Amino acid sequence: MATERDYQSLYDRVAALREQVASRLSADLVANPQLADAITKQIDDLLAGVVSADAKAPSPPDKGLAALAGIGPDASKDFGTTRIPPGVEPYDETITSERIMAVGDMYYLFQHEKIGVFRVVQKLQELFRAGTVRLSGGAGAFALYQFDRREVLRYTMRDRIAAYRRVFGYGDGSGPVGSRPNTDFHKLFSHFVHQVTLFWRDKRISDVIRERAYDPSFGSIAIVRRAGLDLRNNLKWLSFGHLNVMRVEVMQLLEEAFKILDADDVKRLFGADNAWDVVEEVLIRYFNERLVTSPRQRMGVTGREVLRWLAQPHILQTTRSQFETLLLEIAEQSEEWLTSAQAMNLAGRTGDARVLPWTHTTPMPMANGYSKRTPGVAGARRAPARSPA
To answer: 48 in a domain, yes or no?
Structure first.
């Protein structure tokens, strides 16, 4: 059972391991760049093994809520000893510092909120209370009862929606009193992801057109670093307050929800093979919704990995070989996030346009050697603001 302190320490130690390996082998990486791929793979496998082992460890009967809320003899004396689950089973495949990591977990939770996981459990509660489904004394039915009884101790859906609005600018509701929605997050996040994908695309092209093109001398790390620093600085001032505690509580809630959905009596009720099948069946049958489960879940997983990478000091690396080795950790995640977001019409690829004016939501290409006008210049129109998600 991982505590919050163990959870934080694990990723900090893995980050330190990556930097130490890259520092000691920097000369070999120049002569043999493929070594970077092997190093990244081995460290990823070690991390995945630790996460998998923790996920299989038995959880306490109260799912860790009493320790977090300060109730009973097991109440935690400090925040670092509270339990935090590692996450839920990924939709398509198993994939394995503090405040920025909290933002990453909140982004992960937001995507599951958009999928409708919590709405599905709420609908099951309504059907269970009404007696309109064949649930009585099974594991799923008992878990639904406990889920309902503990609801008064948790943050409400309104609290969660307000937090998403404050941190990410997502949604149309009002944020907490005295706060402002972070309307810059989505454009800065998608811009950073786009620059990472462009960097590795340039690397792949250089592999074809030049001898020893994989040598770390092609592509600009300064553009990627600047985009990452802009995003990290944006999140720096928006990750204070109750966000850290909230993400631990809601991660516990998400884990509990999936245990309900994966219970044998609940799966049998809908003829489902796994928890995700139950989610999709309820969304179709009772909400008549168009399913976006796979791209949304992958955006949550890959987006959290990108933000976790930003939480570490990798972005401050100035040595090209070390920077490229560390950046390789999120190369595929960035490509997958951008592809999923593009499929959802939430982001787009802008080719070679790399400059992101503060007054635009997308990079501006060059026209006849001069950049296009930006809002505020005579004759330019300002596009109406809207939530990207």
So the answer is: yes
